[in-house]
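Re: [help] complex structure
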Amino acid sequence: MRTLVNILKKELLQLRRDPKILPILFLAPVIQLTLLGYAATTDIRRVELAVCDLDRTASSRELVEELTRSTYFRLTAAVESQDGLDQLLQSGRARVGLTIPAGFAADRSAGRSGAVQLVADGADALSGTAGMTYAATALQQATVAAGVRPLIELRPVVLYNPDLVSCNYMVPGVLAMILMIMTMMLTAMALVREREIGTMEQLLVTPLSPGHLIVGKLLPYALVGCVEFSTALAVVLFWFGVPLRGPFVVLVLLTLPFMLCTLGLGLLISTLSRTQQQAMMLTGFVFILPQMLLSGFAFPIQNMPAVFQWFTYLVPLRYYLVILRGVFLKGVGPSVLWREGLALLGLGVAILGLARLRFRRQLA
Amino acid sequence: MLRRTFAIAVKELLQLRRDLRTALTLIVMPVLLLFVYGYALSFDVQHIRLAVVDHDGTQASRDAAQAFLRSGYFDLIAQGQDERMLDPLFDRGAAQAALVVPFRYASDLSAGRATTLQFVLDGSDSQTATTILGYARQIAASLSPLVDVGAASGPIVPVPLVWYNPDLSSTRFLVPGLLAFILMVSSVIATALAVVREKERGTMESLRATPLVAVELLLGKTLPYLVVGFVSAGGALLVAHLLFDVPVRGSLFWLAAVTLLFLAVGLAWGVLVSTIADSQQVAFQLALLSSMLPTMILSGFIFPISSMPAFLQWLTRIVPARYYLVALRGIVLKGAGPSVWWPEMASLGVFGALLVAIATARTVRSL
Amino acid sequence: MSRPTVVARDLSRSFGRFVAVDRVSFEVAPGEIFGFLGSNGAGKTTTIRMLCGLLAPTAGAATVLGLDIATEAVAIKRRIGYMSQRFSLYGDLTVEENLRFWGGAYGLFGEAIATRMEWGLDVAELAGRRRSLVRDLPGGYRQRLALACALLHDPPVVFLDEPTSGVDPEARRRFWDLIDGLAAAGKTVFVTTHAMDEAERCHRVALMHAGKLLKLDSVPRLKAAFAAGTVVEVRCPDPARALRHVESTPGVSDASLFGDSLHAVLDRPSRRAELAARLDAAGFAPARVEAIEPSLEDVFIHLIAEAESEAA
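Output below.
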């Protein structure tokens, strides 16, 4: 016990003396969270709309009004000809083009349907789809307002996130990513540095067991991770105002097995970092990138081919994202999330076990 | 001056050739990554887990449910008559959407009375939810004829048309972004590591003792990586074209030109990182953090820039990939010529020059 | 000898096909300063690491204080001190903090560590700088501190791997004074070095080359192995070019450049005159060939040359 405390004290002393540590620990996560929390938005707003109104009646102008009144569209240009519209679309200055043909109002007052041409820039699939959907919905609403109703109306009920604000979904995700990257890299760095400066050998000659060394190394970074988590959580809750619907305790408790995984990964990375250049480049691509792209952070797992979906079962971030989003958005608790918690625990133990094995093997 | 630069470039190339593992990694890695993630990443939602609560139990109600399932987007995961079964399903994530058919649905329809279908959605992931809602609306619209209930005027019928990407496959949109992302990260890391390695080995000292000027040194060191990066970019584009149906509608020449410019800027960024870092570890981390996260999130690769708050849109101006993507997507998907994207490329060029200037100034100061 | 502290029997270690240590056998007596001499890559560090339990042997066996290195490594670690070749204290911690940490690593806490820390500060002559950061200390002091840290738990055996590398001669001399003190107190000091002058201060020296133990004996006896008068110093103009001629003279077993003169080993003292005459005739007049007291370096070079010609 006292030996552990001894190692802990040394680690914390070293941490405190490192001038670069403080900004990395506290400033960096907060800044990153703030920046990325705002950037990682899938709410398509202010889609650039260009209009070619060939009818030029009150009715057609009203239609354009309808569309641009909302925040969904931003009117970037009103052109005289179809060609002008085409150019704007091609250059990307407009993402959706609306052409109202001559005779639109006349058709409608005669009770005939008034067709309008909607062109979307499919090269930007997100804005394109969204633009189309918004426009179609708005047009339908305009139709309904005029008294024509579909027989079957679809009434949507949106659970958990009624305003469909992507912030509540993405920001916890960014929190998870930053926590993961920070704890992983700090742990890996610390161990490789020990080897680099040569104290590792000296440590191995003492009666300290590998277990002592590992725990002694991971514990301070677990503490660091907790502090970072708290800071980042505060930003999420108070700055972004993401509502926390589920039990706070569950959130904190289930973050621990996740940190177990990331710390274990950091340890594993350090055992792989013999020739620093190649190993570190590979681990950046093998450990960080897949977790960013395949964990369900930005790209839904269910959209992936089966092979990848299988693979994500090995990605700790996947489970943690489910936990985070479950607690924040859905307000669910352990009765639903126990599976994910267990998976994280299992993964964490396995990773640590593997790392420890490699660590010991490097002794002889 | 050119000859000395060339000498450095040749040395770097030779070293690279001997370190076959790194060389291969640099070339193969981007192509491999594109291959893997091109398949993995998609916004096209499929296999939507649908629960059906049927209060009516008639042929018509069954038809309605069938219409959803037949569309190919939805998978039926539960069926029943009690709405209370939905809550636990949604909480667990077992269901993403639910169709609730009301009592008297069929009789209302046949009597010409308006009726509603309730569609419950898991709104957590708003993007997926919006897409699902879009599908649902389409299907509902196809189910029901428009009925004139004493209308003042005729309906508005949109005639939709999608350019460049008619089936709105997200892959064609994502893959170019993915390519830009991968190229940026690998060129920054490769360069940063190369220069810092020199520093660590101490050979930097001996190089300083030669008549080499800072610019020549930097240029010479990064030139081979430009070539390597270009080769791998070509390979990746080939993969994108053959496997992911990404067309190349514009001119290959301009494609090569803008890619070269982008790679050069990536290298300049790497050099800048190397002037800040002293050890390879720090260099790697700095390179990674400064290129990976910003490029992934701020370049327009996934999240549209126009949707970001104003101050962030301003920030994206220092993300090189942002400019490259406009040109890349333009050329590849739209067949757009320089007249369309030259402002972006000019900005990129200026940005690159700025980076080189700063990096050179820093190197000179340390010499 | 009374119960040896370190015993090695056919100790070997290979890395793949490369044989780093080849069947090395020796015994070290308590209170002895045992020197392991050899050039870089001779296998000294590998041997020491095996003895300290850092590396497992691929063949052979060894015991330290009667404990088997293969099976009782942890017990050995508790009883030995080790100073690695690379400086391995924490530069970003103070002198005090380093002492306290390493003491704690050996199980010294509370009263025990307080006392030993004072001792350590004394030995390293850093009592007035206990709160300085180690990275701010000059080289000589750092080495002494490293030695102190290795001795906090008062081990009977100390392994020092090139402890004075990169240290100025004055500091080196004082460091060796410390080592003498340790041996006088009854501790066994096992030290590797490639500096001949340091080897001269050991009780016995083991010469290592290419993984093999060439010779093990006390310094005076090693030198005496050369018959008197057979090691000579040759002074003549252009010694660099003269070397070839000296080497090709019959009866010369090896020759090497020594500063601005040549050292050569003759098979019998009478060759001296022959060699001088030959050099004069070859145009290197005036040539003077004088017998000198063989230095350890001469012995070493000779033994290596012998070993290599045997291997060829």
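The mean pLDDT of chain B is 82.
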